[in-house]
Amino acid sequence: MSTLSLRLPESLHRQARKLAKQEGISINQLVTTALAEKMSALMTGEYLAARAARGDRKKFERALGKVKDRLPRDED
Asked: Fewer CB within a 10 Å sphere, N or C end of the chain?
């Protein structure tokens, strides 16, 4: 585990302290979780962009052409 020195505006620190207390966790755990969630969202965006760049319209249309032409079921 490593240590990170972080400067926060007092209002943000106060709110973080309040939320951590409400959740019954430390401020460190709150910040760690928030950072992990943000990184996950950013990395997911990058992953999806990379997947989209590899897309092939012709292959997609060929695969879609194999699907039978039917109306959706009521539960769909």
From this structure: N
